[in-house]
Amino acid sequence: MAGTNSERELLTGGPAIILVEPQLGENIGMVARAMANFGLSELRLVNPRDGWPSEKARSAASKADHVIDGVRVFNTLEDAIADLNFVYATTARERYGFKPVRSPVVAADTLRAKFTGGENTGILFGRERWGLTNEEVALADEIVTFPVNPAFASLNIAQAVLLMSYEWMKSGMEDHGATPFQPIEQRPATKEELIGFFHHIEDALDARGYFRPEGKKPKMIDNLRAIFSRRAFSAQEISVMRGVVNCFDRYSRTNPRGSTADEEAISDDSRE
Amino acid sequence: MAGTNSERELLTGGPAIILVEPQLGENIGMVARAMANFGLSELRLVNPRDGWPSEKARSAASKADHVIDGVRVFNTLEDAIADLNFVYATTARERYGFKPVRSPVVAADTLRAKFTGGENTGILFGRERWGLTNEEVALADEIVTFPVNPAFASLNIAQAVLLMSYEWMKSGMEDHGATPFQPIEQRPATKEELIGFFHHIEDALDARGYFRPEGKKPKMIDNLRAIFSRRAFSAQEISVMRGVVNCFDRYSRTNPRGSTADEEAISDDSRE
């Protein structure tokens, strides 16, 4: 899979990701990569255990250098969120409290609305082993939690950041069904093209005695046409199938194309 | 964050995840963990480079043992998908072809509908370095791709599996705003409780000469009430705020609670 590509648009901005006392440089790097994947760029660290900068983090970031280079380190969570207007705390564990609890979809939509309105926002993620303290959660405006398997709720920190970054990206899309690339356009066949194919194959089969007994011919034709009417073929697909019928019709195993005196080519309109 | 918890429901089932020639055991383990997080359980490997079983995979799976124990290994992709009815291929790179290309949301909804209809489904993920070959993609029914940052499109395999697993979980939810736990219910304050608080704080301030000059008193009261009307307080919050006003009203820095002959407690209705 491709890495950074300077010809393509590099998305930045969005909420700050704030890691509270992260322990492993590798995790910080994987967080940076996950952010970059989905267009976030501002990473803040509160008291990273192994200090900063971290070569392990840079290596694990897989070239998300713009995120790593922009990291800011703070001594306290209060300092790290001082300039923000609205902050989410992520948690996997149920917290008994009064703060609103949001799904990632709702949280991302809320962050997008506030970002668009000019507010500075952030999302807090806790330590690898035990997350955020209640006092840290208390500094946030709202809680966001993930719809996990009840018996297997443990998400690692980079995965939690990935999901929020992904929902952030989606919150900016008008259509969640949109994809970055599309299949090659194919013109759907007209009914004339489809019926031309029916006649072609039916004629070739009829000449071989396929429709026996004669009384069953209408039903056999019905069945055959039903198969080829089940989905809408493209004009090109019809053309390919006519080429196949042509090939069966004109040549045999003992008398293949090119082996006979009759060097008539497969007709142009049915070749692809 | 919590690991497996046998008292809670363990979600299983859903589409098979098929890794084609995965290289690192750690990645296979992280894939298993991501699947378990969002209720998938069937993992198939095509020619894992370092063989199977893998202690590195089990360790990285962080106790997703039910996924690791159920792994099935195949020599070819054809064998791995033989019993399936419908298969997605994941790709980060644009593929020039005719296959439908879907977003994760649409793909997960499609998989959910087919799963509910009794079909066997699967999702193919390629090698860490270079994904799936065109021939492998050709074996799938449709393509799924992620809405990534155009200049930083490289997702690692466990992250790609995590996103599809997460969307699978969401496709089974009626409401994408639902959360596994909710805040403690608080009864909203009545207007009588709110107005009682207004009178309480205004009386205490008036006794201290806060409303000066007298002519500005109505405007000052307006401003004060506007602050406390901006959002709906709960009955409990009103009670806490009355306790605060009471404390300011009855005691001073030089004469704090408990230091005076007047040992009258803060009235019950305003304590929390």
Outline the structure in words:
Chains A, B: It is found in: Cytoplasm. Chains A, B: GO terms for molecular function: RNA binding; tRNA (cytidine(32)/uridine(32)-2'-O)-methyltransferase activity. Chains A, B: One of its GO terms (cellular component) is cytosol. Chains A, B: Keywords: Cytoplasm, Methyltransferase, S-adenosyl-L-methionine, Transferase, tRNA processing. Chains A, B: It catalyses: cytidine(32) in tRNA + S-adenosyl-L-methionine = 2'-O-methylcytidine(32) in tRNA + S-adenosyl-L-homocysteine + H(+); uridine(32) in tRNA + S-adenosyl-L-methionine = 2'-O-methyluridine(32) in tRNA + S-adenosyl-L-homocysteine + H(+). Two copies of one chain form a homodimer. The first copy, chain A, is elongated, with a radius of gyration of 31 Å. A seven-stranded parallel sheet of chain A has the order 3-2-1-6-4-7-5. The first copy, chain A, is built from ten helices and seven strands. Chain A folds into two domains: 16-171, SPOUT methyltransferase, trefoil knot domain (Alpha/beta knot); 191-270, no CATH class. The longest helix of chain A is centred in the last third of the chain and has 16 residues, at 191-206. In chain A, helix 1 runs parallel beside helix 7 and helix 5 crosses helix 7 (157-171). Chain A has helices spanning 25-37, 55-60, 65-69, 77-80, 104-116, 134-138, 157-171, 191-206, 217-229, 235-250, and strands at 16-20, 43-46, 72-74, 86-90, 101-102, 121-125, 142-144. The two termini of chain A are 32 Å apart. Chain A is of the alpha/beta class and 272 residues long. Residues 1-5 and 265-272 of chain A have low confidence and may be disordered. At the A-B interface, helix 1, strand 5 and helix 7 of A face helix 1, strand 5 and helix 7 of B.
